[in-house]
Amino acid sequence: MDEFFERRIVDTGRLPLFCFFVAFIVTFVLTRVNVRLIRANVRWWFRNVTAGDVHIHHVVFGVVLMLLGGVAGFAVPSAHSWPNVLAASVFGMGAALVLDEFALILHLQDVYWTEKGRASVDAVFVAIAVTGLLLLGVHPLGLTGIAQPDPGEEVTRPVLLVVYVASLSVNLALAVIALLKGKIWTGLLGLFVPVVLFVGAARVARPGSPWSRWLYAPGSRKYRRAVRREERYRRPIIRAKIWIQEFIAGRHDLLPPESRRRRSGPGRTGDPGVPDRRDRRSPVD
């Protein structure tokens, strides 16, 4: 194991990336444990950080840590020195805190425990997947650059460059099509495994995606086919993904607190922290 780590991580210059990866995962897990204990009102645990009436979200601490880690990383001249490794770890901690509240940044609202808050967990999963692939030496769209030519290859190098640029352009176009069809994970994975992009771009779009709204008329054959595929294949995957998300990150309420307060009435739960079961909706992704 030590030899494998030395050969695949240290010798390849990926030690800072590895430290970022580990710090990111550990910080995210500890953050979710912390917020779940706070939400459960455990007596012996910490409480939310406040300044007067202002709740200081942990994204604030994340931004500070990312700034410190980023500046320190630029300031250290060698990528293999321990200060650079430490800077990468600090940056990973900050990135985890920021992405854990990605939904708050996206919506500019405190939607942490609402259905919209699942976007934060999605963002964390994407970051972990992309970083993990980079650690394995898989590069997006083959962006490793063209190797320096050996003597006598001056003629073939322009040809290789044209092929490389053409391949890159095609892959980027296919990735955009897959994303427009609502296939986020297919588009992102395809950046590292280009053959996946052909499948994602060729298959029917998801209902509600920009591609479907632009090109599939309601009731058309393609639209009905998209709905059938969504119900048959996509829904079970979404339910499994939500189960995994909530197992790791905690249960997200399907209605925001303000909506639950508006719906509270005689015979209904008025506590904004306890959603009424009659207000729950089937998850739609």
Automatic annotation (TrEMBL):
Q: Which UniProt keywords apply?
A: Membrane, Transmembrane, Transmembrane helix
Residues crossing the lipid bilayer are 15-35, 56-79, 85-108, 120-139, 159-180, 187-205
Chain spans, region Disordered: 256-285
Q: Where are stretches of biased composition, namely Basic and acidic residues?
A: 274-285
Name of the protein in its database record: Integral membrane protein
Species the sequence originates in: Actinomadura gamaensis
